[in-house]
Amino acid sequence: MVQIPNTSASAPPAQRSVPTSADVARLAGVSRATVSYVLNNTSAVRISEPTRRRVHEAAEELGYVPHAAARSLRAGHSRMVLMPAPAIPVGPLHGQFLNELQWALSRLDYTVVQHGALGLHGDDAARAWAELRPVAVLVPGQGLGPQGVAVLKRSGARAVVTLGPTGVEGAHALLMDHATVGREAARHLHARGRRRIGVVVPEESGLEAYSTPRLDGVRQALRGTDAVVTELPLGYTEEAAARLAARWRGLGLDAVFAYNDEYAMLLMRALQDEGVRIPEDTAVIGADDLMLGRLLRPRLSTVHIELPSGRELAELVDRAVRDPGAAPERHEVLGATVVHRDSS
Amino acid sequence: MVQIPNTSASAPPAQRSVPTSADVARLAGVSRATVSYVLNNTSAVRISEPTRRRVHEAAEELGYVPHAAARSLRAGHSRMVLMPAPAIPVGPLHGQFLNELQWALSRLDYTVVQHGALGLHGDDAARAWAELRPVAVLVPGQGLGPQGVAVLKRSGARAVVTLGPTGVEGAHALLMDHATVGREAARHLHARGRRRIGVVVPEESGLEAYSTPRLDGVRQALRGTDAVVTELPLGYTEEAAARLAARWRGLGLDAVFAYNDEYAMLLMRALQDEGVRIPEDTAVIGADDLMLGRLLRPRLSTVHIELPSGRELAELVDRAVRDPGAAPERHEVLGATVVHRDSS
Description:
2 copies of one chain form a homodimer. Chain A is of the alpha/beta class and 344 residues long. The first copy, chain A, has 3 domains: 21-66, lambda repressor-like DNA-binding domains (434 Repressor (Amino-terminal Domain), Orthogonal Bundle); 80-176 and 308-333, Response regulator (Rossmann fold); 179-306, Rossmann fold. Chain A contains 13 helices and 12 strands. In chain A, strands 2-1-3-4-5-11 form a 6-stranded parallel β-sheet. Chain A has a 4-stranded parallel β-sheet with strand order 7-6-8-9, sandwiched between helices. The longest helix of chain A is centred in the first third of the chain and has 16 residues, at 92-107. The radius of gyration of chain A is 27 Å and the shape is elongated. Chains A and B meet through α4, α5, β2, α6 and α7 of A and α4, α5, β2, α6 and α7 of B.
């Protein structure tokens, strides 16, 4: 770990005066109301071009910027869309989706802030978010209850949208059912003639929200067939993968759905090092369609996951903000398609 | 792309009344000041336990949460630490650092918000951040100028900390000089007897902030030696890697520093498919020390990058907030060590 030495001197805090709109008004020789109209681009009031210019110049000279909090107090709400920052590392797919969403919302004149809510859960988290008086809240994952939705709405949020496996009363829901990922993987393996199917369940905490429905999806797809499902807990280390591979022949499996491509790559390498032939002895399939899966030999089969576009989600948020009385919308938004390569 | 249908009805917006502290005061039978003292945990004023309980119960019943904006207006500043959200996808290393940092700051009673500043640059971005009146701002990457720092400070930010290759006047700087990554890679390859060294420069936009100093570091380390450096632009696709590999023998290189592990894995596979032996014909080294690099054969050599701990950075922020008059601190915080495996 790189150390940061503590070199702080104990000087008294510097006195700085934060410029206010009153200072701008004084310098520009106009009223505070005029400053507010000009800097907030209010179209309802006509103000001459020279006056506008004078206000902008005075604001520039003083280094004044409007106070979003004051503006939101006056307006009763903000243009802030709040998203809890994900507590677990997000993959490249999700990262791209977030970027796209932020871009689309900023085009609609919303400011997106991600709230670091580590250590807060459920309705406590909702209260912390409500303190910022966002106009809309996008909640990934699970954990927010109907109470939390009510707290957010009472504090002025016009739209609450959840992105996760299940919806919550009072909120719009973009349903992302990861069971469909497991179902598609299992159908593919079954169609390829495999019957003794292992399912990797990561031991790393925080992944249950994905791993549990993926495993459930495998079970659903194989219900009523002659296939048997075996749960395989696995930590994301070479050592853990080697231990699992060492007892592989005893497990009698002819296929494995390895949770995602990273676990699949890890396990496939360990199996190959044990002399297990892929796909002849064991078929392997991952999920996420990472580029790196194509670089292994055999090339890794995978489940490609589709998310809605950030633009569409931004439009849903904007609709909901404009029409807070509308009935909550619910949409299934997770698509899953098998990409068959050489490992299965 | 999964489609979200537009099912919005055109119902009029529902009228909802947002409960205020005045409502809480009325229900609890106390003054608004008392409500404020109780809910903000002000220790300066003594309030009896039964009164506290009455206020909390009334707040609960009404679903009232304090307004962070109002509180920050009264206090003149907030406990909000603002971080611009990175515009490019962050790797797992950086993601873990962010999580750790958010956790450490929340332990010190700060609220961390990430501001999506896509499309805003430099001092314009600083103005947008200043509108939220954060008490501290952490700015990754480059782009913020001394003007922007001044805007933030005038709007009440007590600490501005940059994380990037260079510092900015008036701000604390955690210097992350990626040249050191290139230097270490080049020294390693030179010590292994390699003299005709290629350096991959990703064609994807947004990565220049890392790729330029890494290339510069290679040149610095090899200056005054008999080694020759060749710049290799490369897009992150199998096709681009195959094209580069097809003309590899004509380039006459005996080593390549491939920007990071992902580009290294991509290029190494393409070179192997062309019959180039790794490391006999060409040594390959990446950077980031990804787990997946250990799964390839030969195992990928890499540069392991060390960041400061989130806890230490949180403590620097807290020191700076408590002592805004102190001279800006500057710390070199990027460590780089070669992990020698089989590809070099």
